[in-house]
Amino acid sequence: MILLSGPRAAAALLPPRGKREGRISPFSPQVEECVLNLGKFHNIVRLVAFCPFSSSQVALENANAVSEGVVHEDLRLLLETHLPPKKKKVLLGVGDPKIGAAIQEELGYNCQTGGVIAEILRGVRLHFHNLVKGLTDLSACKAQLGLGHSYSRAKVKFNVNRVDNMIIQSISLLDQLDKDINTFSMRVREWYGYHFPELVKIINDNATYCRLAQFIGNRKELNEEKLEKLEELTMDAAKAKAILDASRSSMGQYRA
To answer: What predicted TM-score, i.e. pTM, was given to this entire model?
Structure first.
């Protein structure tokens, strides 16, 4: 089996060493334990090919291609150069199912993902600076950090639907606000209706009803002096007079 590790485009060969004394098979349940131990990890993995990117831009292009499930030319060259010519006998372990399907479709190599493959790739990422001569942990971290920042910025830039998303979210928020306002208005009508039920029949608009409920308060205190303010709130002299008359003969509950 051969593992493909990215986005640094390194391929690691896993020879079947399980039958030899002191060796651990890559398919063994002990692989998870070996991942954390560099000495044991070397028993199941060795590097057979490594292709560093020539620039950060090339690294970003390869990362974008992998995320979109596209076989980049650099990846194609790496695989065709270092993998055996008999493709049917090659089993390639990859971390991303999309790029695995693309490799299998375009290049004809059988690909496997998940399970023990994910564990071994985790070990490759952990010990990568030890697998490649001349590569330090610090330089590897800097390269990954720079690529991560570039990839994130590119992803935000490439999101052509981001403006549409904001509009959709705004419309959804407005719809939710309408529902909430309507719910709260119904609660005000229900609760204040116990005290002044006739007001519901006179005023249909929720906003006007809430303003009137706040202004009237105790209906027993409503008198001719407040008629002008009622007309201002209702913008209708007839409705204001009807509210005043209804408050005097209301059947609502009242506690002194």
So the answer is: 0.48
